[in-house]
Amino acid sequence: MDGVSRTHPPRPRSVPATPDAPDPAPDNHAAAGRNPGDGLDRLRVLLASAMGTVLVSYGILLPAAALVVLTAGTGMSVDGVFATAIPLWLAAHQIPLTVVGAPLSVLPLLPTLVLVLVVAAGARWSVRRLGGRLRTDAGAVLAAQAGAHAAVAVLASALLPAAAPVSVAPWAAMVGAGVVATLAAGLGLLRQCGVPTEWRSRLPRWAPPALHGAAAGLLALLAAGAAVLAVGMVLRAGEVEATFATLAPGFGSTLGVFVLATAYLPNAVVAGASWLLGPGVSVGAAAASPFTVAAGPRMPFPLLAALPDTPPPAWVLGVLLVPLAVGAVVGAACRRALADVPDVRLRLRATAAAAVLVAVGMVVAALLAGGRLAAGQFDPVRLRPELLLPAVLLWVGGPALLVATFQRSVPGAVALVEEPEFEEIEDADAEVDAEADADADADADAEVDAEADAEADADAEAEADADAEVDAEADAEVDAEADETDERDSDERDSDVDDAAEPDESGPDDPARTVTAARGRREDREGVPDDADPNDDAGTVIDIDAPGPDVGAGEQRDGDAAARKPQTVAELVAQREADGDADW
């Protein structure tokens, strides 16, 4: 049966689809059996990604929850560890908590950063499994991640017992978890798929350089804030050690305080950047900045021990050079991104947008790093975002614009003048004059070329006419000579015939004498006797004064004589006699 079963026909091979080539059109039965499977596979990937990020982020916080339970001294239990990890997971989504009736919104940023990385990785995995198409898969991935985290957050807030010391508002849990998950998933999608070309083409020319400059400025400010924090903790190492001794006399409690301080480390870095920019940090009534220090109760926490408690010396104002350097970095980044653009206004527009983005980013970071702290004497913790925005625009935006104004890589840069209208008018007039001159030169060249062509054509026509006239005259002369030769030959033939036909007066008709006379007359005309040897030069008389023989005419006459045939009986008799035919 050729190796093929009659009851089980061979299955067609499936050709995997590629982004460039669509799937081959299947038959109705195959499509009906595969479409539900494709939909189930897609749903399975989305659910696995969304719930996987929830479980992974929750599992990362379990060791911290176990450490909290261990240092609390209430006994270690699995149920206690899992229950303690729920508020930590909610805090990682920046959801405000209520601890024993007091608000707590100063939440650590390090767990939030870890959560963002986990969700971004899950979004990248899911969109890669679905085909890596941002247009068709981005919405499903974002909805799955945001929906899963929001649903679990609402469920977790509802499952917290009423007697628990921590409580969360369900609406706050839903909004906070959904927003954080959406932003994190969006970062993962952009990382995996990139920005579509049509979206990038719609952006203005200065937008990508502005984003690069803003990213460079934010990183530089955060790095400077981390350096300020490190220097402050080194200079006040005694106060930091005393704080550890006060809060955690034992090893377990010391480890717990260290973990908590590590979780709040990004908050302290943002506070250091705020101190560098001038607004400073305030914890309750206490505040510190490069310009002044406000007295007040100090919270015993290792990171807050780095804040100065005495008026700063005058040289501290030199730290304001750091934001100026950050502004130079922003301006240089924008200028480097637009190195091939000579327009100064475009660079200034990109630099101004970058400075605004840096200011907005710092304000958002300050809002996330601060917040309410249990409505006590240390409440609230503020980084003064209302002062941070103008400070960034002043200390960072000003130097950035100054650096971006000068462009050394493009010699023909358009300078920024006070009256650009007049310069544009002059440039337009110069361009019009240049175009008019170019058109005039082109017209003159065209006229010269046309005249030269006309003269060349006229000369060619004149030469052609002259050649035609010369040829016509030559042809006429040749024809006249030919006609004259023909007439002369005809006359000679007629005269020969007449002579041959006339009887001799001296006596009766003697054929031999008649032939001899005809031959003599022909010899007289031609100048060569019939019996003369052509190679014998003795009988040849050369006339020096006579013109040279016409070779062409002689050849023509020879040909005519050779081709001539006898026309009368007398000529026939003479020819026979001349040929030596005695019998004739």
Summarize the structure.
The protein has 584 residues and is mainly alpha-helical. The protein is 66% helix and 3% strand. Among the domains are: 39-202, no CATH class; 206-439, no CATH class.
SSE topology sketch:
Layout: H1 28-72, H2 78-92, E1 97-99, E2 102-104, H3 110-130, H4 134-159, E3 166-167, H5 170-193, H6 197-202, H7 207-235, H8 237-247, H9 251-263, H10 265-277, E4 281-283, E5 286-288, E6 293-294, H11 321-337, H12 344-369, E7 381-382, H13 385-405, H14 420-501, H15 511-526, H16 551-563, H17 569-578
Antiparallel strand pairs: 1-2, 1-3, 4-5, 4-7, 5-6
Task: Give structural attributes.
584 residues, mainly alpha, 4-stranded antiparallel beta sheet, 3-stranded antiparallel beta sheet, 17 helices, 7 strands, 66% helix, disordered N terminus
Write up this protein:
The chain has 584 residues and is mainly α. Among the domains are: 164 residues, no CATH class; 234 residues, no CATH class. The chain has 17 helices and seven strands. The radius of gyration is 58 Å and the shape is elongated.
Number of strands: 7
What structural class do you assign from the helix and strand content?
mainly alpha
User: On the 0-100 scale, what is the average pLDDT?
Assistant: 76
Percent strand: under 5%
Helix content: 55-70%
Given the C-alpha coordinates, what overall shape results?
A: elongated
C-alpha Rg (nearest Å): 58 Å
Number of helices: 17
Q: Identify low-pLDDT runs.
A: 1-37, 410-423, 499-509, 528-555
Straight-line distance between termini: 111 Å
Which strand order spans the largest sheet, edge to edge or round the barrel? 6-5-4-7
